[in-house]
Amino acid sequence: MNVVQTFDYRRVRTDFPILATEVRGKPLTYLDSAATVQKPLAVIESVDRYYRAENSNIHRGVHYLSEQATDTYEATRAKAATFIGATDPDEVIFTSGTTEGINLIAHGFTESVLQAGDEILITHMEHHANIVPWQIAAQKTGAVLKVVPVDDDGVLNMEAYIALLSKRTKLVSVVHVSNSLGTINPVKKIIEHAHALKVPVLVDGAQSTPHMSVDVVDLGCDFFVFSGHKVCGPTGIGVLWGKREWLEQLPPYQSGGDMIEKVDFDGTTYKEIPGKFEAGTPHIAGVIGLGAAFDYLNGLDRSGALQHELELLKAATEQLTAIDGLRIIGTAPEKASVISFLIDDIHPHDIGTFLDAGGIAIRAGHHCTQPLLKRFGVPATARASFAFYNNFEDVERLVAALNRMKQFFC
Ligand code: C6P
């Protein structure tokens, strides 16, 4: 693999065809990468090639195309393991995304771990995908959901976390990087404290994998989930990594074709992991596109890319803060390139609509973190999120448009 050692965002931008397009007659300024990351040509072409020349089902056919598709699918499993520092590809389960990965574990814990009075520990900054499955698990089992508070900057209260951990805790499920605030959580420390009490930890890596290299062995987590579409891959595909001993212990999530060893009306035996958790025809094109996305990211200088994102974050934070009446929600010292903000009493949806007219795409709303925004006393924010392919012109366009908007509304 030819890694570009000096990160050159100008060159990297040309890998993403959509960034050269116009929307509403203006050059696209894409600042919604926390929602989904744009796709490089290599990923688009890999999916196109699969459907044009390799389309076939996997694990079933005896013919050439099926063998080819199976090989590429399984090779991506190994790439996924390497992408997050795991050593055993069998510990990688393909899911439809972060949401399904968490649901799979919540289902398994509901069926085979949780009992009345047990506790599940999450934080106040979780995405709904890491709240609702645990609420349902708690309702079904009589377990109790406990929530670690965050401070006014959006930093997790570690003292409260340590105090909430107990022998009753059966799982800690925590977001690595907050999608609304950008806060980077000290997951390694969180895991150390949990493991001291033999409590397993699930890390929601939906917003960390797009920005930083992750090493699940170094972190020490028991489960790690992320979404393909946030790491330059297709939508509808994701990865759940889990320690072998856990995955072997948990029951199947869905059942049917391909996850069985032998079926009889008297009973069924299941495949070993990972097959046990991959029932039915999977999203083959998604996995192949995800493999191309891993190759693409592996070919970048990822620490240079992160450095560039942090420079964009710094420039945007400084220039946005200078706008009269603008308030940033989420001011943790350790932050990824996500900025949630409010301006005076202008509704975030109006901010989003005004920016859209200028070709600038941001997200406005609760970002699937309603409890967190309630904690900050707001129902919604405008959110600009930067990826490694953004440039300083994107920051300038955002700031100029917000200044125009202020004149328009105020
Ligand atoms: N956040 C955002 O705009 P899925 O939808 O399964 O790919 O990912 C869910 C999810 C889980 N955890 C975190 C931290 C996330 O940020 C997301 C997705 C997007 O912020 C869409 S709501």
Major sheet size, sense and barrel closure: 7 strands, mixed
Low-confidence stretches: none
Total number of helices? 14
Please indicate the percent range of residues in DSSP E strands (runs of 2 or more): 15-25%
CATH superfamily of the largest domain: Type I PLP-dependent aspartate aminotransferase-like (Major domain)
How many β strands by DSSP? 17
User: Which radius of gyration do the C-alpha atoms yield?
Assistant: 22 Å
| Small molecules bound in the structure, each named once | ligand C6P
Which fold name fills CATH's third level, the topology of the largest domain?
Answer: Aspartate Aminotransferase, domain 2
End-to-end Cα distance, whole Å, is: 53 Å
Q: Which class of secondary structure composition applies to the elements?
A: alpha/beta
The average pLDDT score comes to 97
Examine the secondary-structure arrangement and name the CATH architecture of the largest domain: 3-Layer(aba) Sandwich
Shape: globular
What top-tier CATH class of the largest domain fits best?
Alpha Beta
Give the tally of structural domains: 2
Proportion of helical residues: 25-40%
Strands of the widest sheet, in order across it, are 4-10-9-8-7-5-6
